[in-house]
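Notebook entry, structure prediction.
Reason for the run: the old model in the group folder had no record of what sequence produced it. Starting over properly, with the input documented here first.
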Amino acid sequence: MNKLWPLIRVSLKVNFGLSVLRDRLFKKKKDIWMVPLIALAVLGLFPALYGYLKLIKYIYGILQPMGQEHAILTFGILAGQFVILLFGLYYVISAFYFSKDLQILVPLPLKPFAVMLSKFTVILVNEYLTVAVLVLPVLIYFGVLSKGGPAYWIKALIVYLLLPVIPLAIVSLLVVSMMRLINLSRKKDALIIVGSLILIAAGLSLQLGLGVSRSRGLNPDPQVMIRFFASPDSLLTKVGAGFPPSIWATKTLVGGLTGPGLLNLLIFAGTSLALFYGIPVMAEKLFYRGLIGIGEISGRRKTISQKDMARQVSSGRRPIKAIFLREWRIMNRTPIFLLNGSLTSLLFPLIIVLITKTGRGYAAFFLRAIGSGTSIYVTLGAAAFMIFCGCLNGTASSTFSREGSQFWMSKVIPVSPREQVIAKFLHSYIIALLGAVTASVVLVVVLHMKAAACAAAIILALITGIILNVIGMIIDLARPLLEWTNPQKAIKQNLNVLFAVFADLGVLSILWLFVHFMVRAGIAGSVILIVLFAALVLLSLVSFQFLLKFAAKRYNAIEV
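New structure, fully documented this time:
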């Protein structure tokens, strides 16, 4: 145990890289330009935060007369825990099994539980930051609106600290068990991807099944509805039925220092500690057994004749095709890159399916109403949904960072930066195309959107995707993150991805204002779409040419 805390402290320092950042900012003066950019990005969050708080206040005002305002807490807590369950899988697999520092830690005289707990602590701290934007506004603003006393604020802090433990421990235990089975096979990378997809599909299916059963249980009879809303816990219980810890956390907060409040706190904390205790137990039994051999590469040797060798060398491959295939293999052979990049393109459309299939609620009705509309805003909203599914996944904005220390190969191979960038763009654009196509299928099949409106939306989305992918690649090319110990850091902890998201949202906001101005001017919807199409084509051509010229200058300046 005396070795555990120093290990955790070092792991946190390596994860956040504060010492490196301090050295680059104040000693080498390399990243000074990031300070105003980060400040601008933080200021850009305030409008979204203001809108989120207004929404919380609006819902609180609706539910308070019915005595159901506590359900807001359940919504916020459940949203945070669902995000951890869904996306924590990437963090756990990457940190537990693909961190480069494991090559140093495993031979040291450290117990498996110490290594695993240090990794778990780092993930836990990252999850506090991840769910802060979802959960903290709900906890704080609810306390302000309900005029919560000291007991509420103390319990709110306890609940927030415990909130990620249960879902993250569940994911960790499932992943350790899965990796132990995967390590028995030679096809490890493929099985990691398949196993991860199975876990995600199981979680979504569980939510879908519970949602359908809850919606079928809603009886429209007035007397039944009166009895339902007569209980102050009815709505929060209905909302949190899919994941009971959210109910325990809510009742802990609203129960004060009374018996029910303390009992639910005991249940919530006890379950968290029990699952947390399962981590060192599983670590001692399965962690190293699932870890050893993960980095091995197996394959069959194939003999080739001198004639075949001469033919392959003389014919060669087209440079763009060769670089594209290299990029494809880098993505596909690293499960973390593949899951983070391409899975998002499928995940968000599936969430929309989940919402619409969970019954007859207002959300499903609202989404179907959008799909059947004819307004230009429906077309633009559908295009925005396709763009969100296809482009906001970090693939383009981590294009060069994913190569890591191997980027020197891109500098020495006899292929021009122009051709390399074209190949890399095609790779990231295929991911965007996958998301757009998947989203369009959901819009037409599930939401019954009209074919003409969907066709116009997908054209706009694909052209806009060119611009957004180019922006992401320019940002990553300007300051690639080539030094990382964990492949997860190249995407999820890469500031380039965050900067690209803000830049993409800025571009989309400008386009939205441009369209809104034309609508207010009384211009016909068909004319607006034509003008928007022409403007996007022009912007895509200009931005792509800029990327090619920037690459020709920037490649040689990158230090590896």
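Summary: DSSP finds 24 helices and no strands in the chain.
The old model has been moved to the deprecated folder.
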